[in-house]
Design a protein that fits this description.
heterodimer, A: mainly alpha, globular, B: 280 residues, MetI-like fold, 0% strand
């Protein structure tokens, strides 16, 4: 009895709608018509995706998500290590508050802040002008996009890694040092090795966060870099081609689920 | 390797760590601080940072804009209703999970948790297809239902952990002293799960107030939420009203975090480990 509400929610707001999307993705789209032709069946929406223009979108999504996940781990690790080991009580509370505030403060606020800071009136405009970097160049847009993704990856990654490092005995590192190991090696051989598994899973988490990002590529990609999520929305909003949008959604869903399942398999092997 | 070389390695390693630490903090906080400063800009156009003098004109703009105010109102209503529903459903589900083992419990839990890994755009698009094919068009309710779906995993996770932390012996004692099951739930379980209930509500509220990827498919001209309105104006406006809106939202977030810290403690919201200092 107690499970009825959650089962109703799952069936009517989750499983059935996903089923509708799967069904829609095989329908024929008629230009000028909202929604696919009822009762029709075609695989065209999927075959369309083999077009180089669409493959570029998929490639961009994965490439930038990969970079954001890798850099995100690189930045998060020292942060969580400091929080777990080095920080004073006040420093710890402060950084923790900042991270939680980042986690809670809206995606809209953060993306807008980044576009303002790195935009034409931001603090980087004079620097970029000095080095003769165009604010509208592809390189600059790609860099701001990655910074945008990092803003979402780093807080989650740091808080996850923090829990792991808190569970590793600090005395291991001290023991290694007292036996003559230099600090960096003591860290490398104890804490880092013991947290390796968590590092991999955090990287995958960052990757998953990035490929499902929507506002970051929408605003910071400035139409130059388009993510799969943006493609789904523009199929719906701009040309009302629901079947094609549904096919892209199914492809993205399959890929995201495959990554997460694959990650769990890899982690089990490592364990 | 000479000891001197190793010592240099140590110094370099320490410096590198400190540098990375500084970069990540700047990356996270820098843009927000700059936006906050810009929101007090006294110039009537979007000028180069830093602002020469300060004023509240952009805040006045924001609060006197009817579209922003009506969508903020919608957001609050949708947020409070969906957070309450999600906490309620999460509590009931967590209670059922705690009380008995049944077949398919693990599978059901995994299913409830799974929307977390589904990109929001896919959920929004699917809900749109579903709602329009069954002919359901009430804007606010559609958004509320969608937000319940996406915040339920978090509510369940928080509340399940909270209920599992309550020793069985307490409810058993209440039952053996003659309380019925409803009384033991109301007098023992609910008060002890208080911090979990508050966290779940605040988390769901924050999630709902900020939601874009799902909502963007479900809003209509009559019912729109604040993040969607801000997003729509972000691309085609050259004023700093959105910076002022960001300032208001950041204040709101800080208040929520302060309340959460007072009521439950920040450390309870994030993960705790066994080797953590107990006093912090």
């Amino acid at each position: 009895m107690l499970l009825v509400p959650s089962i109703l929610i799952l069936v009517f707001l989750y499983l059935l709608p996903l089923g509708y999307t799967l069904r829609e993705s095989f329908k024929i789209h008629e230009p000028g018509r909202v929604g696919g032709l009822a009762g029709s069946f075609t695989a065209k929406n999927y075959l369309d995706f083999l077009d180089p223009a669409y493959l570029t979108v998929l490639y961009d999504t994965f490439f930038f998500s990969f970079v954001a996940a890798a850099v995100g781990v690189l930045l998060s690790y020292p942060l969580s290590y400091y929080l777990a080991r080095g920080a004073s009580r006040v420093g710890k509370k402060l950084v923790l508050a900042v991270l939680v505030a980042m986690l809670f403060s809206g995606a809209i606020v953060r993306v807008y802040s980044i576009s303002l800071t790195f935009g034409a009136v931001g603090i980087f405009a004079p620097i970029a002008r000095f080095f003769d970097i165009s604010l509208n160049g592809i390189g600059y847009i790609e860099a701001t996009l990655i910074i945008g993704l990092l803003n979402f990856v780093v807080p989650v990654a740091t808080l996850t890694l923090l829990a792991t490092i808190n569970n590793i005995d600090p005395r291991l590192e001290e023991a290694a040092q007292s036996l003559g190991a230099p600090r960096w090696f003591a860290f490398w051989d104890t804490t880092f090795r013991l947290s390796l598994q968590s590092i991999i899973s955090v990287a995958l988490l960052g990757f998953a966060v990035s490929i499902s990002a929507f506002i970051v590529p929408l605003i910071l990609g400035r139409g130059i870099v388009v993510f799969t999520t943006n493609l789904i929305f523009s199929r719906f909003a701009e040309i009302a081609d629901h079947p094609s949008g549904a096919a892209v959604a199914v492809i993205l869903l399959v890929i995201s689920v495959a990554i997460i399942q694959g990650a769990q398999l890899v982690l089990k092997r490592l364990h | 390797m000479s000891p001197k070389f190793l010592k240099h390695c140590d110094t370099a390693f320490g410096l590198l760590c400190r540098l990375l630490f500084l970069v990540s903090i700047l990356l996270l906080v820098g843009p927000i601080l700059i936006t906050l400063l810009m929101s007090f800009d006294s110039r009537e156009y979007m000028g180069v940072f830093p602002p020469p003098s300060l004023s509240l004109q952009w805040y006045e703009n924001f609060f006197s804009n009817r579209l922003y105010m009506s969508s903020a109102q919608n957001s609050l209503v949708i947020g409070v209703v969906s957070a309450s529903l999600s906490t309620l459903v999460g509590l009931v589900t967590a209670f059922a999970f705690c009380r008995a083992n049944f077949r398919g419990k693990g599978a059901l839990e995994a299913l409830i948790m799974s929307p977390v890994v589904v990109p929001g755009v896919i959920i929004g698009f699917s809900l749109l297809l579903f709602f329009s094919s069954v002919g359901y068009y009430d804007g606010k309710l559609r958004l509320i239902l969608a937000h319940v779906l996406i915040s339920l995993p978090f509510s369940l996770r928080i509340l399940y952990a909270a209920l599992q932390g309550i020793p069985h012996s307490l409810t058993e004692a209440a039952l053996s002293l003659g309380a019925n099951e409803r009384q033991s739930f109301a007098d023992i379980t609910l008060p002890l799960a208080r911090s979990g209930i508050i966290s779940s509500f605040l988390f769901s509220l924050a999630l709902s107030l900020d939601e874009v990827a799902v909502s963007i498919f479900l809003v209509d001209p009559k019912t729109t939420t604040l993040p969607i309105t801000l997003l729509a104006n972000m691309r085609n406006q050259f004023d700093l009203t959105i910076a002022a809106a960001s300032g208001v939202l950041i204040m709101f977030t800080l208040v929520v975090i302060f309340v959460a810290d007072r009521l439950v403690g920040l450390n309870r919201v994030v993960g705790q480990g066994v080797h953590e200092e107990k006093n912090s």
